[in-house]
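Annex B. Sample input.
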Amino acid sequence: MKRSSKRNGALTIGGSDLKEVVDGARRSFLMKSSLGLGLGALAAADLLGVRKANATITPAAGSNRPAPNLGIQGTGEYPARAKRVIYIHLLGANSTVDLWDHKPLLTKMHGQPMPQSELGTQKLSSMSSGQSAFLIAKPVAPQHQHGQSGVWVSDWLPHMAGVVDELCFIKSMYTVQLNHGPAGVLLHTGFQLAGRPSAGAWVSYALGNDNTNLPSFIVMKSGILQGVPTDSADWSAGFLPSEFQGAELRSGSEPVLYLGNQGGVSSEDRKQVLGWLNDLSKDDYRSTQDADIMSRIRGFEMSYRMQQSLPGIVDFSDESQAVLDLYGPDVTVPGTLAHNLLIARRLAERGVKYITMYDMGWDHHLQLPFRMTGCAKQYDQPAAALIKDLKQRGMLEDTLVVCGSEFGRTPFAQGATGAWGRDHHGGNFTWWMAGGGTRAGYTYGETDDFNYNVVGKPTTTYDLNATMLRLLGIDHEKLTYFYLGRNYRLTDTFGDVVNEVIA
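Annex B, continued. Sample output.
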């Protein structure tokens, strides 16, 4: 063993500074620690050089107000067509053949078996793979063409039929996943297993926040669970600093959990405690260089500021009756899609970058005609109202609205004739986009006559995410984060921008 010596005034052991040796020992101890406090992960971040990813929110010079978080890219790689995203996930998977995809052959062959040549091209869900027959089921409601674009729309969606010329359809989506959980995680994070950052977290990380009193990424839910729960992995920050995870805005008396002060605690008391925590956290950060410490304190500070900012978001008293009527009778009912979409518009006005809406209840394995009617009714008017509302305020041109499901549903029936539904189908499904630089009144991609396979311009969820980032001015291949030895990105190692849907 080499003896210790002095090098440039510092004590060395075997050619290394004593400080390096001690730091290495500290990291090794933390990496091997099993104290259940996540110290191994913190040490890994320290060891690999993972640091605070974005501009620290610190008071601006000469001001007591926090400065905006500008993100790591500020304005992105390209001129942004969209400044913000409203993302509507119809959770459970809607049947696009019943809503958007006009296939006369299904009506002609209603009740007849699907040709084996078609069935053999796709894997089936275990819920229908054991059926003795796969009988074709025609759309449960008539469809008609609307607008100058001539898009076929179900009669169940009369309000959406009125805005089709604002929409850009991608009718050639497909996915490898047939189960809700993995398909949803893949859609939102670019990977089929939980643990990666979601799209909203990536956008917040890249572009920061225009409003220091609200999170840059907010999540809301509506509808009835019906066996397909939302998964917090879909809005997780993953290995990004925790401040970038989605903040869930709930219905009811407490929109954000633990935001209010406990009994006997005033806002001034809370502010004082936050000051103490801030001082302690900064001392801890100086000694550990752990970025998550600063993320946590920014979360505490954000919750304090949201005590003042959030009530104004959910209070519709300043909205005109015309706007409330536009969204429909459910707009004042907390927890409905109408209520949440109006909140989404108000959040977008206030600079929130990424708003994800989960509308639950679209998993129609049984009683599709009855259950689809209810889902379509609760979705139709509010979704169309959002498009109209954004446009009349001059916000549609720089607000990207996207809507779709984690996969599609089969053109053949699942279950008995009297209570039939449609099973999961990854072979093709439809998404629509509006505003934010998309090509209005345009349809991209094509499926076969059975609405079972993509026959033109296949589009993956990676492509959808790459295109969404491009509209925000971000190059999906350059938005990366170094973690555990390599760079990660939202689109993993895949994805192409669908340039044809960009105006």
